[in-house]
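PhoH family protein: structure tokens wanted.
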Amino acid sequence: MASRKKTKTVKLFVLDTNVLLHDPTCLFRFEEHDVFIPIITLEELDTHKKGMTEVARNARQASRFLDEIVSQAAGNIDSGIPLKSASRDAANGKLRLQTQAIHAVLPASMPVGKADNQILGIVVALKEREPERSVILVSKDINMRIKASALGLEAEDYFNDKVLEDTDLLYTGTREIDAAFWERNGKDLKSWQEHGRTYYQIKGPDVTSLHLNQLLWQQGEQLLQCRVTQIDGKSAVLETLKDYSHQKNNVWGITARNREQNFALNLLMNPEVDFVTLLGQAGTGKTLLTLAAGLAMTLEQKLYSEIIMTRVTVPVGEDIGFLPGTEEEKMLPWMGALEDNLDVLNRNEDDGGDWGRAATRDLIRSRIKVKSLNFMRGRTFLNKYLIIDEAQNLTPKQMKTLITRAGPGTKVVCLGNISQIDTPYLTEGSSGLTYVVDRFKGWDHSGHITLQRGERSRLADHAAEVL
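Answer:
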């Protein structure tokens, strides 16, 4: 919703085209306020409707919603069409379409032919015509909002799809506990051992703020790393973690270099956790850990039949057809990260020389498939280890399309860095990756870790710090 504060006066929100193209359901998201759509917005919607891109699909969906609303108007468009029935009671305002030419005087330096300026002119005219209420332009275009502010108009971003206002509040998946934690929650402490792991049952006030599969750690004399496996009212069960930083527990030759990497490997190597999200800056080891765990569980433990890796080819969802070759070959230029990580994973000391290395690489390659996102609709993956790389560039809707491809026995791992978004109109708060981290938080078959430390090299770490 573009305005969260409820006031008695009904506001009038003028929608820019990019808001409809970003979220066709925005028509129903303004609660008791009215929505105004200029004719130029409908014209621009029409120019975007052809094609198979996400934008074209959204344009067609927005047109269908508008058709549904207008068909209920029974010819009474001028006074506004109630949105109550079309939105299934989600919105109580009215939809108003521009039914006549609206003229407003804009500064001479702003060319009238430009669509943005025509919309600004309409906002100016509506403000003059209805001085008793707020007329607010809603646009995803920053420059458009700046222009509106320069003309003394109210303008807002479209906030409804933002999961979080501040990504600093995003769930990290980890929590540090201190000695006082045990004093507060350890009154009826029970402890037992099973399958080489230690379990603690705690009861106390802090349990309500814990999440399933959250990873807890304690510094100091009593070092502890554990996972929340069960929450029942005010009691919870904690399970100690496997130490993947020790060479004897290496995963395809890889060991955890820091606490978060150890947490990540515990989630990735747990077949009970079907959905894992790893966030982190470049060089924190997201892809390497995910691939190492995937190879170990596919080739050694045989839990999955193959690894499928996909990533967003920005521009998102555009045709990859101009590159020569099959789908797999077309995707390879985008998959440099996969090749680099396979080089690291294939660097074994006792591999029988170059021949052994080549044979291992061929075996690994035969089990890793590279797929394009464009052809994911309608597919079902059975017993696969699905890696979605660069997931921060996906919208929540695209993310849903991908994750719902998972059939029985499939594990989905989403990797990304929300400070590296390349898609227009997506922000850290509205990225599909932020959305799934927030929505899956606390489900007993999903886990999330934000990796903090870069582990590439001293050069890369220093560059990240000073540049």
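Residues 3-7 have pLDDT under 50 and may be disordered. Residues 167-240 form a domain with the Elongation Factor Tu (Ef-tu); domain 3 fold (CATH 2.40.30).

Cheers.
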